Amino acid sequence: MHILSLPHPKLTPIHTTPPPLYHLLVPSMAENSKPSYDDQQEIEELISSLPKGKGWHSSGLTLYQNFWCHSKFLPGVISFQRHFLARDSDVLIASKPKSGTTWLKSLAFSVLYRAQFNPTEANANHPLLSSNPHALVRTLELGQSAGHAPDLSGFADPRLFGTHVPYDSLPYSIRRSRCKVIYICRNPLDVVVSLWHFVAQVDAGDRAGGWSGMEEYFDNFCKGMDGYGPFWDHLLGYWKASQERPKKVLFLKYEDLKEDTAGNLKRIAEFMGVPFSDEEERNGVVEEIVKMCSLGSLKELEVNKTGRSIAGFENNSYFRKGEVGDWVNYFSLSMAERLKNIMEEKLSHFGLTFRVN
Ligand code: A3P
C-alpha cells in the first residue's frame, strides 16, 4: 500500500493548428465569446461575496448554489445558466469530472452522428481520429467569461454538449425542455484517484494550489469540498432525476460501461432516439464504435497526445489507466473505510450503490 506522489510533467506547447473537420462541427471558443450582455460586473461582485475553499488552480473553489465550483469557471457557469436555451433535440452529457466523461462523449458523438461519419469503414476522416472528444462535444460552461453569452449558432441539430453542473443548477430550459441528459458516474474511490493524478498534472504549472499530498486532497473530497461537489449531491441530483424522468435522464455507471460496452452503447442509442438497426448490428457497427472509442485507441491518437482542447487542460490528461478498482493501489485501509462509510450514509439509502471489493 503506498500513497501517491507524482512528478510534475512539463507543459507541452498549445496545439495551434485546428484539426480537420473541427471547424465544421464546433465554432471556436473565440467565436463563441462575443460580449453581448453587460452583467459582467454584477457577476464579479456576486462571486467575490461567496465563500471560498481550496481547489485546483490558485483561484480555488467558490461555494455557489450549494456546490463548490472552480472559481475560474464560475463566471462561465453563471453565463451558461442565464443564457443557454435548450432545444428539444439537444443531448447533454453530464458528469462529475473523472467519471468517464471523455469516453461517453466519444461514444455519444459516434452514435449520434454516424449517418455523417461512418465508423465502419476504415474511415480516416472520422472526426474522432483527428479531434479530441472535448473539442467535438463542447462543455457548455467552460471557455465563457462573465457576461458573455455563448454563440452556438454554428451548431446544427441535433446538438451534443457536455456539462459538469449539478442537475438542480442546470439552466431552466434544460430541465423544462424535452432535451435528453446522459449522466455518467463512477465509484467515488476511483474518482478520487483519477482526480488526484489529473490535479497533479493540471497544477504542475500552478503550484499555488499547494497540496501537501493525496491525503489532503482526499480529506477535502470526503468533506464535500471538491469541484462541482459534494460528490454525493452531484450523484443524487441526477440519480433522482433519472428515476423521476427516465425518458429525460439516463443514468450510467463507468463500471457497467466497462463490463458491457456494446450493451450500454445500444441503450445510449435507443435513449437518444437513434437505435441501431438490425442491419447495422449485422454489419458490426456497434463493435466498430466500441473499438474506436476504447481507451487504447483514443490514447494512441496523435491529437490526444499533444495540445489542448479546453484551455488549461492538456489532451493527454484525459487518458490514463481506465481501470476499475485502481484505488486499492493508493488508499490506506482507513481512507477506504472512511469513503465507503460516506457512500453508505449518503447514497445507499437512495438505492445508489457501487460494487466495491
Ligand atoms: P483514470 O484516471 O482512472 O485512468 P473524465 O473523462 O471524466 O475526465 O475521466 C477520465 C477517466 O476516464 C480516466 O480514468 C481515464 O483514463 C478514463 N478514460 C478516458 N477515456 C476512456 C475510454 N475511452 N475508456 C475507458 N476509460 C477512459
Automatic annotation (TrEMBL):
Gene Ontology terms for molecular function: sulfotransferase activity
Pfam (any one): Sulfotransfer_1
Keywords: Transferase
Database matches in Gene3D superfamilies: P-loop containing nucleotide triphosphate hydrolases
EC code: 2.8.2.-
Sulfotransferase domain residues: 88-351
Family: Belongs to the sulfotransferase 1 family.
PANTHER family, alphabetized: SULFOTRANSFERASE SULT
Protein name per the record: Sulfotransferase
Organism, scientific name: Punica granatum (Pomegranate)
